[in-house]
Amino acid sequence: MSRIAPLLKNTIKTQRLLPTKTTTIGVHPGTLGYQVQKLVVEQHCFKAPHQPALQNVALLFSHCNGFNKETMHPLIRRVVAGIHQQDQYKQTDLSVFAWDARSHGDSARLNEGTFLDSYSWFDHAMDTQQVITSFGLQKEYDAVIGVGHSFGASAMLLLEFLFPNSFSGICAIEPVMANGIESVEKRAKSPILSSLKRRDTWPNKMACYESLVSRPFWNTLHPEVLALYVNDALYETADGTVKLKTPKEQEYVSALVCIMRHTKTQFIPPSSDQHLYTVGYFGGATAYSSLRAVTIPLELVYADKSTYVTVDPLALPDLNPKHIRSTVIPGTHMVSNERPDAIVPHVIDVMDRALVNATKGQPKSKL
To answer: What sections of the sequence does the record tag as coiled-coil (predicted)?
Structure first.
């Protein structure tokens, strides 16, 4: 039996973090779809081991493309435990905010039938701001630490560029960035095209698990992450089958592509109902250029087997030595879903640096 099957069958309920509060908010009012589209945000509160608490820190987690907030729970659990094991944080309350992008997970279920032809990474950046603003993170907490993966991380960088000091510090895991814009022909060959072809419906959750676990991409995920994906990324349809909450067309829209349908003689723009749009390349290039302007602690974490890295990760601090640190660890682009324990020290590092900046070394409670 696979190492993941027992988790899926017997202990999945103990793997998902139960939120302190679940809230539905509108998407950012400056983006198309603001009249009808929603975001689902979960708040998880973790009291300091030693009370009374002297400070209160918010951590905002943003998932990667194609996944959902629950798949970040193993990382969240380990980050919280790791922080509270540090002597300097024994009296620090932590409030974790995890949310689904408007086209993903529980947000996608609420927004079914409302998806538009123009969703971009800049929209996702503004939705990130909407979460920060709606919950008053900058006013209510001593620091706001962003922990983002892939396009979630890139959106945090875009937000910080557009609105400096939105965060006190950011741990960006495999942010997708590019030093320039590839030609349309090269972008049309992107491997993300396969997301339109992948299966999105199964007879039941176990059938889904069995179809995924034998595939190298899925089998490298941490057992808890895959179990949570199977349990929480699916919903039951009217005919009794289970289907991905995130429409595969929307996963494609959010990806790093600017696709033009290829023929032997020309590139023809796809029709709007195919949901193939100009999106990630310009956001990724902007995120890269924004690094020079960062004024907060930024920890970049890349994986040595990633196929999404088009820049030299270890050269990135040269763009802004005062604020940027970058490291490469074993893993693939999905490293935070493969080895969540390996991410913890980097979150703690950026939190250490951010709190020194925010309080000049002295705790200042906003409790």
So the answer is: none
d(CA 181, CA 300): 21
Both tokens of residue 99? 């949310």
CA 288 from centroid of its chain's CA atoms? 17
Point out which residues pair with 45 in neighbouring strands.
Answer: 95
Assign 67 to helix, strand or coil.
coil
232's tokens: 């929480």
What CATH code is carried by the domain that includes residue 288? 3.40.50.1820
Structure confidence at residue 261 as a pLDDT band (50, 70, 90): very low
Give me the domain span that covers residue 287.
Answer: 17-182+277-359
* 354 within domain boundaries: yes
pTM here is 0.88
What is the rounded CA–CA span in Å between residue 331 and residue 127? 29
The answer to whether 140 and 58 are in contact (CB under 8 A) is yes
Mean pLDDT of 93-109: 97
pLDDT at 33: 95
pLDDT value at position 178?
84
Q: Which tokens go with 112?
A: 């079914």
116-131 in b/e burial notation, b at 16+ Cβ within 10 A? Answer: beebbbbbbbbbbbbb
| The total number of structural domains that make up the chain | 1
